[in-house]
Each structure stands twice: as structure tokens, then as C-alpha cells.
Amino acid sequence: MGDLSNKAQELAGKAKEKAGDLTGNQQLKGEGQADQVESKAKQAAEDVKDAVQGAADRVKGALKRDE
Predict the structure, then answer these.
(1) What is the pTM of this model?
(2) Is the pLDDT assigned to residue 1 strictly greater than 60?
(3) Helices (DSSP H) in the chain: which residue ranges?
(4) Which of 20, 28, 52, 56 is 20–30 Å from 13 (CA)?
(5) How far apart, in whole angstroms, are the C-alpha atoms of residue 9 and residue 15?
(6) Quick one: which of 49, 53, 44 has its CA closest to 6?
(7) What average pLDDT does this structure show over 35-41?
(8) Is residue 35 within 8 Å of residue 58, measured between CB atoms?
(9) For residue 12, which of 34, 35, 38 has the smallest C-alpha distance?
């Protein structure tokens, strides 16, 4: 579910940025850019979490084979 909500936040951020750009509203443009950065940071954190979990699962599998 995190991937979808992060993607939605990124798309909303792009829309805000574009709307701010078209209307000359720098605050809205900045909010859109910030939303995009936040969504990418969340996705990166999820990727790291998944990688750590995968490594832990491989270690557990290796330990079980050695028993």
C-alpha cells in the first residue's frame, strides 16, 4: 500500500508544482516540489527496509540449512 500512496503523493506534488508554475504561485510550486521529495524519500526508506528484510531472510535460510 505504501508504494501506491507514495506514487499518489508524488503525482499530487507534480500537479501542485505545475499549477503553481502556471499561476505564478511560488508557494504552491514549492509545496508541490516538497511533496515530491517527501514521497521519494519514503519510497527510498521502504526500499532499504525491503533490502534489509531480504538479507535477514537469506541469513535465516542459510542458518537453517547448516543445522
Answers:
(1) 0.72
(2) no
(3) 2-23, 26-66
(4) 52
(5) 10
(6) 44
(7) 96
(8) no
(9) 35
